[in-house]
Design goal:
- The complex is a heterodimer.
- Chain A is elongated, with a radius of gyration of 20 Å.
- Chain A contains four helices and no strands.
- Chain A has a domain at 60-122.
- Chain A is mainly alpha-helical.
- Helices cover 57% and strands 0% of the residues of chain A.
- Chain B has a domain at 112-141.
- Chain B has helices at 12-17, 34-43, 116-136.
- The longest helix of chain B has 21 residues, at 116-136.
- Classes of the chains: A mainly alpha, B mainly alpha.
- Chains A and B meet through helix 1 and helix 4 of A and loops of B.
- Chain A: It comes from Ranatra chinensis.
């Protein structure tokens, strides 16, 4: 039900809540004292192309997806042998999702901050 | 066939009955005089007052009669037709577009239960209501996450640590 309360919250305060379809409008380094860790793309374009990975899966976990698919191909039909690779990929996706949740919360707080500053008169 | 001598005086209905090839089923030339019209009406098994010709547009309809359009579906299903599957009697002249109005096709005589504006209003209200609901409930339920960051050349993405 969290999705519906989020949606109603967004509908009621549309100017104070981040749109789930828009990228962050703020500087990603704003408010960080130390340098943020960069996401690194480990899989190359050629690898992804030759493995026919769909465009929506070509994210920062794609190298783990490649490992998983390779393992499945090598061990077919004993795919249970690939549970390590599968778990590694799922965990990477999970961490990415948690990062997106944190990014939403950060966006929300930065928007509130901006509104406070505007209310004070710049 | 050779026993039957076909001459100028052979009745036309006999000619039609002995027709055995597509050229024999061809309609005749457009009748002009009353006598020709009566002859053509008899050929198609119609009374002279029932017989009407299509205007001669050069499309080859010729003397074929302009019959009232009745769809098979709307004919009486309990009547003892000679051909019940077509609801048609033997020798009955067909409308020249009868194939379009068979039982499995369009019924021109259909009386719809609701009027056309009523049906249109119901259709538009159902479809419009659906679109309106879709429009109003857009972003009504989502997980609190920003869109997935996909690697793009020239753009840096950062982790939360």
């Amino acid at each position: 039900m969290g999705n519906i309360s989020t949606g109603i919250d967004y509908k009621l305060h549309q100017d104070a809540r981040p749109n789930p379809r828009q990228e962050s409008k703020f500087d990603p380094l704003f408010g960080f004292t130390e340098d943020r860790k960069k996401k690194v793309m480990l899989a190359s374009e050629e690898e992804l192309y030759s493995a026919k990975i769909p465009a929506e899966n070509r994210d920062y976990c794609a190298h783990l997806l490649l490992d998983y698919q390779k393992c499945r191909r090598n061990h077919w039909p004993m795919v249970y042998k690939c549970h390590d690779e599968k778990h590694a990929y799922s965990h990477c996706e999970y961490e990415d999702f948690v990062d997106r949740m944190k990014a939403y919360e950060r966006e929300k707080r930065l928007m509130a901050r901006q509104r406070r500053i505007e209310a004070r008169g710049g | 066939m050779s026993l039957l001598k076909i001459g100028a005086r052979t009745p036309l209905n006999i000619l039609v009955r002995y027709a055995h090839w597509n050229k024999d089923w061809k309609p005749g030339p457009v009748p002009k005089t009353e006598y020709e019209k009566a002859k053509a009406a008899a050929k198609y098994g119609l009374l002279p007052e029932e017989y009407k010709v299509y205007p001669d547009k050069g499309d080859g309809i010729g003397d074929y009669p302009d019959l009232p359009l009745t769809s098979v579906e709307s004919r009486d299903p309990t009547y003892h037709w000679d051909f019940p599957e077509y609801r048609r009697n033997f020798g009955e002249a067909l409308h020249h577009k009868a194939l379009l109005y068979g039982e499995d096709r369009y019924d021109v005589c259909m009386r719809p239960r609701f009027s056309m504006p009523m049906m249109l209003a119901w259709f538009l209200s159902a479809m419009g209501g659906s679109f309106l609901l879709c429009y109003l409930t857009e972003d009504m339920a989502f997980l609190p996450v920003l869109p997935k960051q996909l690697p793009k050349p020239g753009i840096e993405h950062y982790k939360f640590e």
